Amino acid sequence: MEYFLLLGKDMFSFPHVLGLCFNSEPPACPAEVFCIRLSKGMEMKRLLGLIFGVIFSAILSGALPAHAENYTVRGDMGAEIRYELRERITGGTGIRQTTLSVVMPGSFQSPTFRQEVRDVDLAFVPRPDEQKKTEDGRGNRIITAAWNGSPAFIDVRLTVNAVNTTGLETIETTAPFPQGAVTDDLSDYLRATEQVQSDHPQIRALAGDLTRGIATQFDAVQRLISWVVDHVSYVNPPLKYDALYALESGKGNCQNFSHLSAALLRAAGIPARIVNGITMNRPFDVAWQKGVMTFKMGQGRHSWIEVWFPDLGWVPFDPQNSILFVTNRFIRIEVGVDNNETKNDGLLTWTQGRDAARRPGLQEAVQADFRKDDVRLRGERETYGPRNLLLSPFVQASFRPLEIKPLSPLPVYTEAEKNTFRFDEPFEYGNLLFPEDVDFAFSGVTRSAGGDAFEMRRNFLVETAEYVTTNLTQYAQVVVLPKPVRLEKVGLALHRFGGEGVLWVDIFADQEGKPGLPVVTSALVNVAEISPRPGYRWVDFDFSRENPVLMPGAYWIALGFSGSAIVNWFYTYGKPVGPVHGTRYKGVFQEEWSNALNFEFNYRVIGRTVRHDKLPQGATR
């Protein structure tokens, strides 16, 4: 008689032991069952080792699931917000006149998002020598204040009381595609601009390919936005802010996401406009089948779009992660054809003489007090695309679901193959791009406005970071290594605000998409060694004492600490590198890492790997 081990297998879960069978011949097994012949004299310890070894190998070698990350969200968000924007201008020398423009937020209503502005107060200290009100062709109400010369300090405070509501009920649209002719007041939102190059051959070709054979506008829009979500990774600051740069480089900030989305929509004959405003860093939760996903943005400037539907009107979209709505954490301020036009809010201009030795400076701060906040949202993951995270209300419309192709499996190597590895090639991997050493309070961009005139525009550099040395919450970030690595260092993008103590990094194995058993711990870093100067920078944690070898697969990085350290860890919107649910947190007294975050911490893994031509080919088993 022979012993046969039967293991169930499922690409979406761990293999599981079905049982042992004693037969003279291997039993007939269906395709979803592993059948393994065991030797008669095998000891129990070796038997268990084989079982778990087979399970672990099967986990690593199985095809990665082709999960879509399109979530249908139902519910509502209502908030009463007291929003305050403060600008402080420091004077220059040799300045003839200093001017600041402010756009007054207004009320807005759409099928999913409503902003009701109840009270607005704008104060200048000292009082300007000249002040005027204008309204541009887009309906933006602009206050322009001018001072003779350059006062040592100018303080500007805009206070707004707003009631913001996001309602995610069923949306019904029957708008056909193509849309056809539009009225004159919409025609500007179809034309190409310097930053929205909708007439460029590459953009026109892509828009045509993505919408070929489509019959409804909703289907066309969701395909165009889904392409952007899956093919552009967030980075700030990018080298350029226009649509074509985002298309060719595959990266950009919120301006790039907005410009590329608007360019594709306009190329397809769908009016789209750029919106500038403010996001607030108050998090909110969306419950779904497998836990809670927490969403959070930085507090500061943001750009998004609004899309025209003949039967719905203007509807907001945030091309980074939502269609047909934005949350009530947005303050809508200014609209236009692109971000070259929507530049008036917070625009500082001046004229200067030849003896000018120092230019004016501008510091901006945003505060938000939620007097009331009621969030009730529940999401459901759909079976169709895109691959990256996208939230949508339930839409009753005709469309063809996007199919998601499965990812290639990670390689798995035998012990004999591992023994031949020589780790002689430098390796660096991770979410590497972030605004290093930037003081976010002073990040405006100065440029010539012609002759002796200059301007400083607010930019969209926002401090996106999480306070991670709290005694209440633990955070972990996944890293999926594509090849074998002899680990030397793990770097985190950190800023020390104060306190004392020590930090370290723990690395955990992956267990069903969450942190599992500990693997290795770094050497300690004294908090006092981390510079407190403004900005974020790499802090490397040393693993040279252990020099662990990590095979391809998922691992979790967690920051450990003791003492009173106050440290923030910088993060990037979206998931530039890892899977959607690859940033986790839990309460210190909880066992389950069931909560996921919508961003990805900035990290780097440094070590040495095996040259590609020295790795066994076809190692996936």
By CATH reckoning, the class of the largest domain would read: Mainly Beta
Structural class: mainly beta
Biggest sheet architecture: 9 strands, mixed
Overall form: globular
Helix content: 10-25%
Work out the helix count: 7
CATH 2nd-level architecture of the largest domain: Sandwich
Detail the poorly predicted runs: 1-24, 26-66
Q: How many DSSP-defined strands? A: 40
Explain what the structure shows.
This protein is mainly β. A hairpin with a 2-residue loop joins strand 15 and strand 16. The protein folds into three domains: 60 residues, no CATH class; 196 residues, C8orf32 fold (Roll); 200 residues, Jelly Rolls, CATH 2.60.120. The N terminus is likely disordered. Strands 15, 16, 28, 30, 31, 32, 35, 37 and 38 form a nine-stranded mixed beta sheet that branches. Strands 24, 27, 29, 33, 34, 36, 39 and 40 form an eight-stranded antiparallel beta sheet that branches. It has seven helices and 40 strands. It is 12% helix and 47% strand.
